Amino acid sequence: MLRVEILGTPVDLVNLEQTLDWIAEKISHPQPHCSQIITTNPEAVVRAQTDPALKKALQECELITADGVGIVWAVDLLTPHKLKDRVPGSEILPAAFERFGPRLRVYFLGAAPGVAQRAAEAARTRWNIQVCGVQDGYFTDEAAVVQAIRQAQPDLLVVGMGERQDTFIHRHKAVLGAKVAIGVGGMIDVLAGEVRRAPRWAQRLKIEWLVRIATDPKRWGRFPRLLQFVRLVWASKLRRPSGV
Fold it and tell me: What are the pLDDT digits (tens) for 213-223?
């Protein structure tokens, strides 16, 4: 597995199948602490420039996949390597459920009250996974949530808590008791039927992010980070010696 660096944050050059193989290895041969997956995107890279906790989580993460097409572009521009495609959480999660099925013990954490429960039930019905715990993201006793996860001993901890998810996992992964933990953003809402993914044509053209921003006013405030990412990447490129 080859790891490169984009604006001081790492990215692993893996595809979806390699990601699933990595998960299988961690489930079969678990580490002393939880192995974390971060699906990084331009917003996360920009936030990490001023958020020490997120930057540390990224730098110490066991597997970092390219969630956004902007990361694929940046890898191509700033490194001698290429990524054929992104590996977002919206693809990792259903693919993992499909591959491991009833062998997989999953804990769902995040979203609004009741949503994670509906997502868990939908995933259990569709893929026959084992649901070993559910908790919404509106909790106040973090220690109690961590203890509940530890007692459940999931193979896969699925965390959908927006910008909090990756630092939450990193902060507690030594004691979570999960074999693998992944931040999945709004995927719990998708599984629960609360929101829909962008149309297939947008996914094929790799502009799913643009459709989401254009159709959801709540996301409009995120657009400046995307512009800042482009500026930072080009500035980094221009600072490099010719041919590097």
Answer: 555 655 556 66
Q: What domains sit in the chain, N to C, each tagged with a CATH number?
A: 3-239 (3.40.50.10700)
Torsional sign, CA 58, 63, 68, 70: positive
- Identify whether the C-beta of residue 158 lies closer than 8 Å to the C-beta of residue 182: yes
For 41, counting Cβ atoms within 10 Å of its Cβ (0-12 exposed, 13-18 middle, 19+ buried), the class is buried
Q: How far is CA 1 from CA 8, 11, 15, 40, 65, in A?
A: 18, 10, 10, 16, 11
Question: In the predicted model, is pLDDT for residue 61 greater than 70?
Answer: yes
pLDDT one-digit tens code per residue, 158-172: 999 999 999 999 999
For residue 243, how far is the Cα from the chain centroid? 33
Q: What is the pLDDT of residues 180-217, one digit of tens each?
A: 999 998 999 999 998 665 566 655 655 565 656 555 65
Cα torsion 164, 167, 171, 175 to 10°: value is 80
* Residue 171, number of CB atoms within 10 A of its CB: 16
Radius of gyration in angstroms for the set of CA atoms belonging to the chain, rounded to a whole number: 18
- Identify whether the C-beta of residue 186 lies closer than 8 Å to the C-beta of residue 137: no
